[in-house]
Amino acid sequence: MFDDRSPIYLQIADGIKNDVLSGALKEDEQVMSTNQYAAFYRINPATAAKGFAQLVDEGVLYKKRGIGMFVSPDAREKLRAARRERFFTEVVDPMLAEAKRVGIGVDEIVRHVGGAR
Amino acid sequence: MIELRDLTVRYGSTVAVDGVSLDLPTGKIYGLLGRNGSGKTSLLSALASYRRPARGSVRFDGADAFENPAVMRQTCFVRDTLDVNDSERVRGVLAVAGWLRPAWDHDYAARLVDLFELDPRKRISALSRGQRSALGAVLGLASRAPLTILDETYLGMDAVARSNFYRELLADYLVHPRTIILSTHLIEEVADLFERVIILDHGRLLLHEETDELRGRGITVTGPAAAVEAFAGGHPVLGEQSLGGVRAMTLDWRPEPADIARGEAAGLTFGPVGIQDLFIHLTSPSKRLEAIR
Fold first, then answer.
1. Which CATH architecture has domain B2-214?
2. What is the per-residue pLDDT across A41-70, written as a single tens digit (0 to 9) for each?
3. How far apart are CA B205 and CA B39, in angstroms?
4. Does A95 touch chain B (CB under 8 A)?
5. Per the database record, which ranges form the HTH gntR-type domain (chain A) (predicted)?
6. CA of B133, closest CA in chain A: separation in Å?
7. What residue spans define the domains of chain B?
8. What is the value of ipTM here, to two decimals?
């Protein structure tokens, strides 16, 4: 589930963001508690709590005192906007660099993408 | 708060623990790591007041721990030897633990005995290594002591028993938070349970940090020697290897995505450094690394 590339709390935050983006977690839906999360993934609860705290800081989740944490109503929209901004620099540019290395022209890529449409 | 100040443990002229100072906030799970002979057991023995330090002190919420009954009642130290009478039976050992430990949970102990498939009628002398380890785990967990120290107790267990032990430890800690210190060298399989990691090397404190901060702390860079060296800049080098013109360096540095992109454009490849690898790099004598080159 988790790898050594980055702190687990960041991986937890990314995983939940992906669930919000894909719609697996809906607006105002309650997420697992940090203890449930820790027991499920067998990680220290402080690590899980740090991941959730980061999501609250970023406005992806909000807290209801004594009840738990929920997905913010505008979380999906905000995440989509942020990911769109990064799409060209983080996804397209590295792909074009690799295409150049192996000698695939832009025309060929366009034809392929057109076929996939 | 558990405070170790300049803690030093000596056996004759041998210094096993050398001036360790540590602040351990209570209620967390700590992993104590170190190679064989690094002083783990000596440090824990002093921490649990099983041994009087040659110098320095251990304080619990300000009170000196040594021969302090109030502190000792709160402390459960399980070591390899188990400190039990070999001619006693398992159920007798558990009964004694129940008398000695104010927070002992009989039902929980019974559940753990079942889980680890221990026979309560068996004598300690007749237990296999794995069963002895399992009994140590039961004594440690069911004591629910505010300070529970398990010194490689579980290393004799097989993979299934260890997995059960880790699951039980976490589940019980979630319901009954307390300070738990585990010493181990099976880093990879337990690291996720530790909130903090303490690394000892030759009796000295090498590192005390949040476990999660160690993930992604180091990086391995591989590629043409000149490009690797240029990328490494002045960042601390934990290890390196060369094969022909190719060089691999392990750096104690967390580069930004832009650095990675720049490196990849220069033909470098990157790999993560796990906690186990980081531990090996931090505690290997550099001479040995030189020899590999």
1. 3-Layer(aba) Sandwich (3.40)
2. 999 999 999 999 999 999 999 999 989 999
3. 10
4. no
5. 6-74
6. 21
7. 2-214, 219-292
8. 0.84
